[in-house]
Amino acid sequence: MSLQPVLIAGKWLEAKNTTGTFNMTNPATKSKLPESYPVSTKEEVHEALEAGKKAADELRTFSPEKIAEFLELFAKKIEEHTEELVNAANLETALPKEPRLRSGELPRTANQLRLAAEAARDRSWCMAVLDTKTNIHSKFGALGAPVVVMGPNNFPFAFNSAAGGDFAAAIAAGNPVIAKANTSHCRTTKIFAEAAFNAVNETGLPPATVQLIYRTSPDVGFMLVSHPLVGATGFTGGRQSGLKLKKAADKAGKPIYLEMSSVNPVFILPGALTERLQDIATELYGSCSLGAGQFCTNPGFVVIQRDEKSEAFINSLGKIFRENKPGILLSSSGPQNIVDAIKVLKKAGAEIVVGGKEANEAGYAFSNTVLRVSAENFLKNPRDLQTEAFGTVSLIVVAESIEQMAEVANNLEGNLTGSLYTSTKGDDDSDYSKIENVLRLKVGRLLNDKMPTGVAVVPSMNHGGPFPATGHPGFTAVGIPRSMLRFAALHCYDNVRPHRLPEELQDKNPTGKMWRMIDGQWSQGNVGI
Amino acid sequence: MSLQPVLIAGKWLEAKNTTGTFNMTNPATKSKLPESYPVSTKEEVHEALEAGKKAADELRTFSPEKIAEFLELFAKKIEEHTEELVNAANLETALPKEPRLRSGELPRTANQLRLAAEAARDRSWCMAVLDTKTNIHSKFGALGAPVVVMGPNNFPFAFNSAAGGDFAAAIAAGNPVIAKANTSHCRTTKIFAEAAFNAVNETGLPPATVQLIYRTSPDVGFMLVSHPLVGATGFTGGRQSGLKLKKAADKAGKPIYLEMSSVNPVFILPGALTERLQDIATELYGSCSLGAGQFCTNPGFVVIQRDEKSEAFINSLGKIFRENKPGILLSSSGPQNIVDAIKVLKKAGAEIVVGGKEANEAGYAFSNTVLRVSAENFLKNPRDLQTEAFGTVSLIVVAESIEQMAEVANNLEGNLTGSLYTSTKGDDDSDYSKIENVLRLKVGRLLNDKMPTGVAVVPSMNHGGPFPATGHPGFTAVGIPRSMLRFAALHCYDNVRPHRLPEELQDKNPTGKMWRMIDGQWSQGNVGI
């Protein structure tokens, strides 16, 4: 099948100057998929940036209502293309059609776009602050430059570069998007980009509001995220690539929001284990095996205290992991990365409880794996023993005391999440505080008696955390409207005449219900009323 | 006079292992001041970090009320030490005692601390978001690690490392501060640190809540801002040092907020010049000469359109600049930096209208200077022609048309401010839009018919802007409570049992008037009421 076109400056273009092409592989059969995709040249990326900047300038003149219409129309089109999308994503990622793709991720993706539309229309996201005495007002506004979105391999819909959370947040904040497809699901991404582009045209937004490329050389990627014409970048993926892109963007002073690796520690306090050992083991396996363990919030690191229940828990967990068939991994690098990670963990002192080997399946797979290590050993080499194994793999750290559990927490890197399991009877209350005090500062989202997978799209969500889980502890990739603030700049207006102010800062509330901070009070009213 | 002590871990220590010492110079007389100050070693800085981390952990257990008490007591002590502070700062910076230091900057500094106290007590700054249906809540919380503050030379009080805006914001957000004094006003900073430390002790905060060092080698400085124990850094100063610190902090994933150079463009539209040429020239000189031109928001770049009024304006401006005596610069590097900057500007095609030479004064001084260049020339070398000359120096760019003025705006780097002067009769309305569209994206604060100096400490202020004016376009260094968010992390609580939540996220409003976003509505009430 022929080389697939890129979408640049409002046109589907046969890549003319590609520096190479690539095909994908069906991870369930290890067979090559027919379509070829181009590796974009520097010139092509530059063209996208120029067109994106023009679109950004135009987009700032459109009403939020128009942007909301686009997002809603796009959501509708996604639903209309459900079967095509589910089939493509299943072929490219081997994620199950049901319930995962059709009933889970696709509705979530459409919902995110609708929530973003609602936030754009509502306008409260921009945090307008009016100071009537000094006539100084401020609000967050669009960057006025294209946002680059580089999505991950593990959520072909909900985090897709051309339809997922970063895309929705960037557009709702008023910026065009240059989507760089994740190279493991290009067909899926192209279907999204087609639907988005049609919605762009039908709504009358600037044609380059959505652009699509599939791959670049690393150098061209660095050029992209650090280019003077770029507004910001949203990246979700592995730490190695993330840090390289961060370095390039940081040097140029371009904001880049990264969601990188995380082992998502789960601390199970003694009272919880005494009370419901079997339930917790089942929950842990359920969470750890979601998406064949390829979730950013996968619980890959469990800390327990050695007592009469701890060995029973490890045995019970091992049994569940052993008895269940491993899922299919997203690509050929999936099993290899786990092999490499387990090598590091073992070298640092971890022992295999169950699994530890590539699974003998038609598709890419790795046996469900439990490892263990003493807290004493962990504390000798905390860095290596936090190596992420992206699959159904969990390392159990066995501590001698609550104090040692806290010490383990104190040696953790920044993580997206951290969980604390406790007795329902309050037995663990003082132990909870000891761990929470330390864990709170190490994670973005702290959970209690709950596994970390399942990231609700609610305004209070934080899908973020301290470095190296992300690049900045103050931003979230999930949760509208807060995620939009990543793609906005703080704009202050000092002594600007009333008719020259943006609507959001004029006396009259532009929607009649937008929330604004007027002279220190949050209000949905007009100034003076 | 003997070597001055540093304040580390709650003790004033004679620096034992200093890697060197330095003395300051009185810029008004060019004579050496008697006190010597130590250059801190790596070990000493490490000690401060360890103590700061311990203090941070303790500080998180204190009520906001206690932190507010400290800030208010500190403000009171500053007022009690007015004469000592004014004398020290005048000696070290040559800034006038009246009105600048005693009636302007000192009351502002005390006021900032009181506003920070109010914000801490009020708690609304933390942006609590409660989602009662999912039991997921979030808010901003202290970093739980010391904040490094490196203040600038030009505001010995209001931006002082141990008393200024960054200090106030970091403490109010619940973090201890490691102040690195600006080496041009160490005695002033030491007086602040003494007052702060006494207030710490009297309030009962952890002794290492405030620490003070004066200078480090560059390498130790990089270690400080990138250290695992550091929470974040607030830096105000020159671009060269700022970028080096940024590189070190970025690599380690440590937030650093930088306020660097800015030429603060002023666009004067033809209608305004026709209407009030002389007034604008006077205003411009007034703003440009404040603090001998050493303001971050100094208007160093003026764009006008060539017409019958433009030469008259340049002549008028030149006359005012020539007739006024230059102020005393902050240090010996002051005149040298201006000489270097003017060399770059001239080489790139700018011509001297008036001034351009070191002034023959007892203190460090440079003659008030106006330069001019055509917009055509500017557009050939926009980078060099935006070189900041930190003094009473302004470059007039003469454009042929409004379109060319917009093109000049389009070639600007990120700036803290941008001003637009317009006719009061509405003659410039369409021209205003043409420039504003471009300028809006280049600056943090957009002004209309107002000069950029004078940064009101109000919640709507943005003393920030796109790179390289700062390191991130979403944060402000002035304006409480927003400036506090730089020194906080987003903390989400998922399924956490009610009694384990921080007070700000429990059902009951902890102050009875704190603003919280409950299920999509800003409210001062309790959950369910």
User: Please, how many domains of chain A?
Assistant: 2
| Strand tally of chain A | 22
Structural class of chain A: alpha/beta
CATH-level-2 architecture of the largest domain in chain A: 3-Layer(aba) Sandwich
Fourth CATH level, the homologous superfamily of the largest domain in chain A: Aldehyde Dehydrogenase, Chain A, domain 1
Poorly predicted regions of chain A: none
CATH topology of the largest domain in chain A: Aldehyde Dehydrogenase, Chain A, domain 1
pLDDT averaged over residues of chain A: 97
Structural shape of chain A: globular
Q: Which CATH class of the largest domain in chain A applies here?
A: Alpha Beta
Biggest interface reads:
A-B, 71 and 72 residues
Query: How far from one another are the termini of chain A?
Result: 65 Å
Oligomeric state: homodimer
The count of helical stretches of chain A stands at 14
What is the beta-strand fraction of chain A?
Answer: 15-25%
List the helices and strands and how they pair.
The structure is a homodimer.
Chain A (H helix, E strand, L loop, with lengths): L5 E3 L2 E3 L7 E6 L4 E10 L1 H18 L4 H17 L1 H12 L3 H26 L6 E3 L4 E7 L4 E4 L14 H8 L4 E4 L5 H18 L6 E4 L1 E2 L1 H9 L5 E5 L2 H13 L4 E4 L5 E4 L1 H20 L11 E5 L4 H14 L9 H15 L3 E4 L14 E6 H6 L12 E7 L2 H9 L4 E7 L7 H11 L3 E6 L39 E7 L21 E3 L2 E3 L6
Parallel strand pairs in A: 4-10, 5-21, 7-8, 7-11, 8-9, 11-12, 13-14, 13-18, 14-17, 16-17, 18-19
Antiparallel strand pairs in A: 1-2, 3-4, 5-6, 6-20, 15-16, 21-22
Helix pairs in contact in A: 2-4, 2-6, 3-4, 3-6, 4-5, 7-8, 9-10, 13-14
